[in-house]
Amino acid sequence: MQAVLFVGHGSRDPEGNDQVRQFIKNMKKQLNDSLLVETCFLEFELPTVFQGIEACINKGAGHIAIIPIMLLQAGHSKIHIPAAIDEAREKYPHIGITYGRPIGIHEENISILTSRLAEIDEDVSSPSEDAAVLLLGRGGSDPDANSDLYKMARLFWEKTNYSIIEPAFMGVTGPLVDEGVERCIKLGAKKVVILPYFLFTGILIKRLEKMLVGFSEKYPEIEFKLANYFGFHPKLELILVDRVNEALSDNVKMNCDTCIYRIGAMENIAHHHHHEHEHGHHHHEHEHHQHEHEHHHHEHEHHQHEHGHHHDHHHDQIQESDEKAGVSS
């Protein structure tokens, strides 16, 4: 029997965990009826990834496709999930386990973001010239994951007609939300639409709603709008079906199961038992990722001004970045 194990991040807010479960329940309709489908979480909620794998095995699975329900590649998808997979492979060497890709960069992401703006009556095809979109990510210690938000902002700019689209983060790294808002205003925005790139509601969204009140008081001449978060949009099912099919056919285009950076990082961590670290993932990510993709550290520098010239020089910056990173087109 083949099984699909979806891995949610997990939240201190039970509502966020319930959203994951409900989404997977709805998504089962898109999958083959013969598949066993289970859900697990990385932290703050049970079952753990290892427990999820064991649940699949106990129900008769001989091959398990593990799919992370995460927007960006970061420490969890690069290190923590593979660590649980390694532990399971050691205990159950006869079970086939394929690690699939997270949501990542996908064409449907743009469609989902566009629909979120349309929900608040934004005319994406012909927005006002003084309107700005602040694409807001969670933020983390992995520069590679943070740079993916910049990539999404660029792709979103390419597909829409907003003259100002700025990335920002809720925490851990900059630019933070208030810095992003200030930048939009300095670039001439009279309206700032905050578009959260989050999967579930959680504590951050509730905090953001309070922050919006403060922004309106600080900048009374500016119109602020808060779009619905990326969330479990129906089109997200299409992306994850793609990821499931890749994994079940052993045609995963990229994952970190054998990543050289993970192998090095694994020397610094013990087996990841849920009760030992469930509140600690974010405290040790700095150790894992400060060396991972050093060529991305310059990205914050060149993006601090890229929108100020309405993108005229952006391709030159990309070329310069690629040359620094040793990437050829």
Structure notes:
With 329 residues, the chain is of the alpha/beta class. The chain folds into two domains: 2-102 and 234-260, Rossmann fold (3-Layer(aba) Sandwich), CATH 3.40.50; 107-226, Rossmann fold, CATH 3.40.50.1400. The chain is 46% helix and 14% strand. It has a four-stranded parallel sheet, with helices on both faces. α7 links the parallel β7 and β8. α2 (49-58) packs across α3. The protein is elongated. The model is unreliable at 255-260 and 270-329 (pLDDT under 50).
Provide the fold topology:
Elements: E1 2-8, H1 14-27, E2 36-41, H2 49-58, E3 63-68, H3 75-91, E4 96-99, H4 107-119, E5 131-137, H5 143-159, E6 164-169, H6 177-186, E7 191-196, H7 202-218, E8 223-226, H8 234-248, H9 260-266, H10 274-277, H11 281-289, H12 299-303, H13 314-325
Parallel strand pairs: 1-2, 1-3, 3-4, 5-6, 5-7, 7-8
Quickly describe the structure.
The chain has 329 residues and is of the alpha/beta class. Helix content is 46%, strand content 14%.
Largest sheet: 4 strands, parallel
Query: What is the count of structural domains?
Result: 2
Which shape, going by the Cα principal axes? elongated
| Structure annotation, total helices | 13
- Mean pLDDT across the residues is 82
Per DSSP, what share of the residues sits in E-state strands of 2 or more residues? Answer: 5-15%
Task: Tell me the strand order in the biggest sheet.
Answer: 2-1-3-4
Strand pairing plus helix content: what structural class? alpha/beta
The CATH topology of the largest domain corresponds to Rossmann fold
* Elements, N to C (H/E): EHEHEHEHEHEHEHEHHHHHH
Radius of gyration: 20 Å
CATH architecture of the largest domain: 3-Layer(aba) Sandwich
The level 1 CATH classification of the largest domain is Alpha Beta
